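ARCHIVE CARD
Drawer: 12
Card no.: 0347
Subject: one protein chain, sequence and derived structure
Cross-reference: see card 0346
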Amino acid sequence: ILESFDREEKLSTTVSTAEKRIQAEEARRKEGEESLAREAAELEQRIHSLIQDRDAVKPRVPAPLLSRYDRLASARDGIAVAEVKKGACGACFKGLTPHALQEARKGDQIQICESCGRIMILAEVGAP
């Protein structure tokens, strides 16, 4: 009987410790969910802001370019524009010819990647 009481006491301590761990993990999980919910709300707000910015700029874009953009975006998983990085298209990584790179630097024409067809932009003027 004493052995049973001793074993019950040990099990009771183990259960108590396990319950405390469960409560701590539940608190961490709840905190993580709240953090993710806040982050999701911030991202939704940012997306909404970017969509408004895009819609404000859309009327100033020439119709043929806008049509090309829409076609590319639907065909290329929503990515119709690529940044020129290190002298290459940032989407397909095909190197630009020196002439194409110079034309992109001028910025007076829309540059199209010869390989993937995306519209290319230089993020910074004079960037290679």
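Annotation on reverse: The CA atoms of residues 58 and 66 lie 8 Å apart. The beta strands are 81-85, 88-89, 111-112, 119-121.
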